[in-house]
Specification:
There is one protein chain. This protein is mainly alpha-helical. Helix content is 54%, strand content 7%. It folds into 2 domains: 42 residues; 96 residues, Herpes Virus-1 (2-Layer Sandwich), CATH 3.30.40.220. It has a two-stranded antiparallel ribbon with strand order 1-2. The longest helix is centred in the N-terminal third of the chain and has 25 residues.
Length: 140
């Protein structure tokens, strides 16, 4: 068999396996979500650590955290709301925020806060946030 034919067969096999995997996840989406929620409930710090490590690798960001660096408090330090761990209430789920996004996920640059707080400050500058607060105060 020629090398060209072997390469073609490998690509076809790989593509077929990928299609099968995607089809399985589509059929079992609820099961996959349930298992993820169970892992999060069992050990929220470890689950957040693992997700963050994968996200950093995918985005090519620096990462030097250990599982001990990720501590989930009882309430969000930004909004003061209690965390709902493993619920489908995503706004009050714990999330790892990069204080200075360009530095990546490194010690001293992360805060565990609610997803709601993380989304609010997503890419807003301090002056933009102040403008929003001034607008809301003027309207009430």
């Amino acid at each position: 068999m020629s090398t060209e034919l072997l390469t073609k067969n490998r690509k076809q096999t790989r593509a077929s396996a990928l299609r099968a995997s995607r089809a399985w996840y589509a059929r079992n989406a609820e099961h996959v979500s349930q298992r993820a929620r169970e892992k999060l409930r069992a050990n929220p710090s470890k689950a957040l650590f693992q997700r963050t490590r994968k996200r950093a690798a995918k985005l090519g960001l620096p990462f030097d955290l250990t599982p001990e660096d990720v501590v989930v408090p009882d309430v969000c330090p930004v909004l003061g709301i209690p965390f709902n761990i493993g619920d489908r209430k995503f706004g009050s789920s714990p999330s790892i925020d990069r204080v200075v996004p360009s530095l990546g996920y490194v010690r001293g640059n992360i805060v565990v806060c609610s997803q709601r707080a993380n989304r609010i400050k997503n890419d807003a500058t301090l002056s933009e946030l102040r403008a929003v607060v001034a607008f809301l105060e003027a309207r009430s």
